[in-house]
Amino acid sequence: MPRNLDDSIVLSNYPSWELAIERSPYDQLNTEAYSNKFDLRSISRKCNRLGYRLVTFSKQSPTEQGYIQYIAPTDYEREDIHFLGRGVNRKEVKTSLPRSWVRRCEKFHEDVCEEDGMAGRHLPVNLRLIDVEEKILIKAQKHLCYLTLSYVWGAELMKEETGISPVVTNRADLRTNEAGEECTPLPENLPRTIADAIWLTRQLGYRYLWVDALCIVQDDPIHEKMIHLTRMDAVYNCSKLTIVAASGFHANSGLPGISVARKYAQSSEMVESYQMAAMSPSFSELENSWSLKWNTRGWTFQEKVLAKRILLFTDFQVYYRCSESIWTEEIFTETEAPSKSIEARTAKYRWAADRQPHIPSKKLLLVKMVIPQLNVSNEWNYLGKFPDYAAAIREYSQRDLTDQGDVLLAIDGLLRTLRLDAGRFVTGLSEAHFLQSLLWHPEPGSHHTRANYNLPTWTWASWRREKGIVFGVLDVRLLRLIILTIQNVFISSKRFLSDLLSSSSSDSTSSWDSSSSSSY
After folding, report:
1. Considering the entire predicted model, what is its pTM?
2. Contact, 130 vs 214, CB < 8 A?
C-alpha cells in the first residue's frame, strides 16, 4: 500500500504503435525520420482494432515507467492483432517466429537488408564455415549463404564455473578428404552457446555457420591469423543473420529459450475477460544497456553495428533487428513494405556509413518551403559522418578489452567503413575531421587512467575511461553558427560601408566639381 499520496501509482492509456517507436542508435540527429514511426503509423491506420498499452509510473519517479499490454486472444483475426501482446514461453523460443521474421524481411524489404555494406568488400579468401548438417568444418570454395554467432568467450569464468576450457581449432585438428578438401569433424563436447547456435541454424533453414573459435585456426602464423582478425567486420557484414548470445557470461551459458530457460518469465494476469502482461525492456533500452554482458565487450561492438540482421537472445525475450525494422517476441508489430511517407528514410537501422546519403528532390524541398515542419532534409551535413563516428566511439570507449593493445584493432573494421568521408584515421582520430576529433573528453565524473603507452596522450584510444568519452559535437555546431553569423554580419557591414563610402565619394566629387566650375 502507498505510504502517502506522492507514492500513488498513475495509469495512463496510450496507443501501442506510438510507444513502439524506436530510433536509430547511431543517428546523432536522433530524428523521427530514422525510426520506425512512419511504418507503424501507416499500418495502424489500416487496423480494424487499435491496440493500447497502460503506462504506469509513480508521482515520485515519473521517469521510471512500466508498461502493461493486452495479450491478443487466439481467436482474433490477423487484422485485429496488430500492436497487441503475444505470449512468451520462458522455457522455449518457437523458432517458427524468428524464421518468419527473416522470410518477411526478405520479401518486403527488397534488397535493402540483403546488400553487403562497405565492410563486406574484403571477405577473407580462406573462409572456414561449420556445415551444421554434416557437423564438419569446411573451407568455403565460393560465397555461401551463412549465419554468424556473436557471443562472449569468458574463458576464465567458464573454466572457474564449469571446468570447461574454450573449444578451438588448431592446425593439428585439420583433416582433409580423399579429394584433398578440408572436412574437419567438430569436437564432440561443444560449449552450449555454440551447440545451440548450430541447432538453431538448422531450425532456421540454413546450412552454414561461422563461429570465431572454430573457424579461425588459433595457432596459425600471426600474419595469417591477423588477416582473419582484421576482416571479421566483413565476415559479420556478409552473413545472412547474426545470432547474438546477449545475456551469456561465457561460451557455455547457452541461448536463453533454447538449451536454458530464460531468467525472467512474462508476468501476466487475467483481469475479467482480458489477459494483461507486463512488458519487457524495448530493443533500444537493451541495445546500449550494460545489463547485457555482450554489450560490455569491445570486440562485439562492430559485430553488432555491422551485422545486416540480428537475432538478439536475452533473458527477457528474443529481439530482431534488420536495416528496416525492429520486431520483438512479445508484441505484434511486424509490418510489411516500409512506409512511403516523404519524411521516412530508407535503411533506418543500418550503420550510417553504409546508408546512401539522403538527398531530397527539388520537389520535396519546394514542399518543405510550403510546410517547414516536414522533415525531408538532413541538417548539419557539413560535418559528414563525424556525428556517427562520435556516437560510435562514445559507446565503444565504455567497453572492456581483455588486451588493451587491441583497442584500435577491435574497431578497425568499423572505422574502415568511414574512410570515404573521414579519410585516414590517425591513432583512432579522423584525418578529415581532425580538429573535431580532438574535442573528446571523459564523461563528467568519469575516472580515467592511461592504458596504452604506445599511443600519444591526445587520442582517446590511449586512455581507459570508467564511463567512456564524448565529443563536443554540439560545441562544433554552435561554434559554426557563431562563425557564420559573424561572417554574415561582417559581410553585410562591409557591403553597407562600401555602399556608404561610395555614395559619399560620389557626393564629394559632385560638390567639388560644382565649386570648381563656379570658381573658374
Report:
1. 0.87
2. yes
